Predict the structure.
Amino acid sequence: MNLKSNPSKSVFLALIFASIIWGATGPVMKLTLETIPIFSLGFIRFGIAALILLPFVYKKLSIKKEDWPLLVLSALFGVTFNIAFFFWGLTMTSGLNSGIIVASTPILTLIFAAVFLGEKISKNMILGCIVGIIGIAIIIGKDILKNGVTLSPYGDLLILAAVVVFIIYEMISKNLFKRYSPVTITFYSFAIGSITFLPTAFYEYSINPNWINNLSLPSYLGIASGIFLSSLAAYILWQWGLSKSSESRAGFFFYLDPVSSTIASVILLSEKITWPFILGSIFIFLGLFIAEHRYPYSRTAPIKNSLNNILRSAII
């Protein structure tokens, strides 16, 4: 069986959990960026995450000389450019606008996968894409009708740039997965990314050294969330899932972002879950079902075994 044409439940779970975590990252990081400068947060988040990963990969750090340029490019697009654009964009635009733009990821992924990777796009995937867009429109539309959309051209363009470079990162990473484990690629992405953030982090400190003294409990929680959830858990799950699936299929799971983003907003900003949110969520999951011909995971298979398979395969 070709796993990429018929991914297992473990692959679906990995992509689902990664997308849910990243969806909640927007509201969390937006709050954290109120007290921590952009590049300083990037350096702390990925530097510590790389150190945590090191004991698990120190025996598998060997990289062939010819693969280093591709590895560095992967890190630059997946961490340096993606996070810099995303964090910077969050400080200049609303969470609503960023959610709308990130929701375009599956469409852009389909285009990139078809044009650059030669992946075949089925009618079901196109239909699932349209149904998912309807779900997102329902969730976001209620806020647009109520509050309108405040245009922030620079911030919006930066969020869009973050989406584009992440898709490029996915395409680069797929070539590396043929020779190295997802955890090894993730470690190097974090390590190289944190090093690239270091000069600008020093510059931010030279301008405003007092930000360290102004850290609060929410700031520390935001840092911890960025390290253990957004970086370690989400990147490893996504890398592993992407290594076992086509890029166009993986892109569909970004439709889950608005769902977890709304839930995070409920917890952090005391917003209420509404009927449009529930209806939109149904459309989003329906879009996934149509695109894949089945539910994201089998009801009869124990989720615990799937998670064990993900962790075991990601580290090997």
Observations:
- Residues 294-316 have pLDDT under 50 and may be disordered.
- The radius of gyration is 19 Å.
- The chain is about 75% helix and 0% strand.
